[in-house]
Amino acid sequence: MAPYRGAPVTLPRSACWEMRAGGDPARHHRILLAWPEGPPPPGGFPALFLTDGNATFATAVEASRARAWRGEAEDIVPALIVGLGHPGTGPFDIPGRSRDYTPPAPGAPDGTGKADAFLSFIETELVPALERRFPVDRARLALFGHSFGGLLALHALFSRPTLFCRLVAASPSLWWAEGAVMEAARRFAASPPKGAEAAALLITAGGLEGREDRGPHAALRAARRMAGNARDLAALLMGRGPQVEFVEFPGETHGSVIPAAIARALPFALPTSPGATA
Question: What's the number of domains the chain is made of?
Answer without folding.
Answer: 1
